[in-house]
Amino acid sequence: MDEEIKVERSSAVVVCRCEHLTWDAIEEAMAMFQPTSLRQLKLVTRWGMGICQGRMCRPIMAAFEQREENASLGALAVRPPFKPVSLGTLGRMGEDA
Amino acid sequence: MAPQVIVIGAGVIGSACAYYLSQAGASVTLIDQGDVGSGTSSRCDGNVLAIDKEPGYDSLMALMSQRLLHELASVLPPFEYRRPGSYLVCDNDEEAKAAWDWVGQQQEAGLPFWYLDRAAIHSHLPHLASDVPAGLYCGSDSTLNPLLYTQRLVQAAKQHGCQVRVHQAVTEIVVNRGAVAGVRLADGTVLVADVVVVAAGVWSPRLLQPLGVTVPIQPRKGHLLVSAKGPLFGDAKVMEFGYLMSKFGRERQAPEDALRYGVALVYEPTESHNFLLGSSRELGVWDTAPKWDVVQAIGRRALRFYPGMQQATLIRSYAGLRPWTPDHLPVVSRVSDIAGLVIAAGHEGDGIGLASVTGHLVCDLTLERPPIIDPRPLRWDRPALTSWKDGGADG
Ligand SMILES: Cc1cc2nc3c(=O)[nH]c(=O)nc-3n(C[C@H](O)[C@H](O)[C@H](O)COP(=O)(O)OP(=O)(O)OC[C@H]3O[C@@H](n4cnc5c(N)ncnc54)[C@H](O)[C@@H]3O)c2cc1C
Ligand code: FES
Predict the structure, then answer these.
(1) Are residue B34 and residue B90 in the same domain, yes or no?
(2) What span is annotated as the signal peptide, if there is one (chain B) (predicted)?
């Protein structure tokens, strides 16, 4: 995860697999909504809001964050991990405690 | 001359106010301490409901808002607006009986409600637990993406000349000789205005208190869970009837953890093919961090109605602060002692649904046009609010 990724700005590159987002979609959202923070961009595009919880798309996002023209968007606060859990497991947790 | 209006708060309410005002020709500045929609309006569901409103003023206001929203959906760019209707499902026979009475009252008031007996509810909602005795359906209810809706309103307001200032907190509403003069920002700048609309959600009392205007708005925290993309459990929204039981002055029967955190089932499929589960109600809690006990109580409640969700995967949870008022109606009002001061806050669990009618009414009050609905029940100094004493709430 720590290795630096170079992401070419190419329309076909998928930046989030869970939400089927390409660079194009991100650029489009940037132009349309002119978000002032990454949280806002994330909320309109659902970037990083799929099941991977950022594990797959986080490095690409980091590359996006580091672009000079995006400096004003700041860095993205990483949400405390909520490990995907099935509802059945969730309901039973703590029952035998 | 067009009045200079400052709207404090770019949640769904302030954004709707900015939209209607700038469209009507006012010169509007919309200010938020965070981003557009960064308060409660991005931590909520997108249900636009008449199904849970008391017949009378409440339901008429909700229906008027639905009508206006329907118009907005045809003029604004898309915001995932759909009208699948909504269902309320009953946990037990006592609730089924109360639901029967409720539907009767609503039908008398001319609203599109239907009672669904055991056979009917299970044919409408095949995923439901087999022991659910009854339910009801409201045909006019709709749903949307709340953050997108808020942003669309702001975009459209901008096209009508609205100025938007984000990441700028208002520290003070400046009043001079009984009239609003403007607002002071955190960096000391003063912006002048003829009218200031306070649409700061749960934070509104902090801006109003220094002016001697006391409005008993309090946070009522609510949690939501988000599922992974996967099979849905039906396309329509489903809520449980139980949380309406208090309106009938009857005790609700539910597990202890559900009662403690005010948990009632809300199932909302989204356009991104995942679903949201809610929700909880905790009065007076300011902390927006999700709490595990509450998340679990919501999960268990969902399983009671949807046993097939055992395998469904949850990926996230979040919580927001509903702006609660003692009589569950918002404050949409001028303040007679301070010319130019308008309040639009306190929409509790209905701000998304009531944003359109609120924005329209604020515009009417500001420009002194005939109001779209009777504004009197929404006055800030109505007896239910002025007589309310802290501690008297039951949550
Ligand atoms: C779990 C949950 C589920 C919900 N589900 C639904 C639903 O299905 N349907 C529905 O209709 N409603 C629902 N609601 C309720 C709805 O979210 C709220 O009623 C609505 O978002 C309130 O909007 P608002 O604009 O008044 O407040 P907010 O969205 O909180 O906006 C207020 C804004 O004011 C800004 N602000 C505050 N103080 C200042 C200051 N001093 N200077 C500058 N800016 C300031 C804040 O940053 C914020 O952006 C739900 C709520 C929750 C918590
Ligand atoms: S790749 Fe889907 S959330 Fe990141």
Answers:
(1) no
(2) none
- Kindly give the distance from the C-alpha atom of residue A46 to the centroid of ligand 2, in angstroms, as a whole number: 9
Assess whether B250 and B342 both reside in one domain: no
- What's the total number of domains in chain B? 2
| List of residues 6+ apart from B218 with CB closer than 8 A | B202, B283, B284, B323, B324, B393
DSSP 8-state code for residue B329: -
Tell me the per-residue pLDDT of B341-370, one tens digit each, with 9 for 90 and over.
999 999 999 999 999 999 999 999 999 999
B55 near B247, Cβ under 8 Å? Answer: no
- Give yes or no for A39 touching B (CB within 8 A): yes
Structural domain boundaries of chain A?
Answer: 14-92
Instruction: Tell me whether B276 touches chain A (CB under 8 Å).
Output: no
Task: Report how far residue B65's alpha carbon sits from residue B358's, in angstroms, rounded to the nearest whole number.
Answer: 8
Q: Which domain, by its residues, includes B354?
A: 4-44+147-215+327-389
Quick: pLDDT tens for B79-132. 989 988 899 999 999 999 999 998 998 888 888 889 999 999 999 999 999 999
Within a 10 A sphere around the Cβ of B71, how many other Cβ atoms?
Answer: 10
Quote the ligand 2 centre to A30 CA distance (angstroms).
Answer: 18
- pLDDT, residue A37, reads 84
Task: Let me know whether B360 and B316 are in one domain.
Answer: no
pTM here is 0.88
SS3 B184: strand
Q: Band of the pLDDT at B392, cuts 50, 70, 90?
A: very low
pLDDT digits (tens, 9 = 90+) for A24-75: 888 888 888 888 888 888 888 888 877 676 677 877 888 888 887 888 877 7
Question: Is residue B54 in some structural domain?
Answer: no
* Closest listed ligand to the CA of B264: 1
How many other C-beta atoms lie within 10 A of the C-beta of residue B301?
A: 27
Residues of A in contact with B302 (CB under 8 A): 87
Are both B250 and B104 inside the same structural domain? yes
* Cβ(B341)–Cβ(B215) below 8 Å: no
From the CA of B331, the nearest ligand is 1
B153 and B300 co-located in one domain: no
Q: Is the ipTM of this complex over 0.90?
A: no
Q: Kindly report the nearest CA distance between residue A90 and chain B, in angstroms.
A: 6
B229 CB within 8 Å of a chain A CB: yes
Give the nearest ligand 2 atom to A17 CA: 1
Residues B280 and B260: their CA atoms lie apart, in Å, by 9
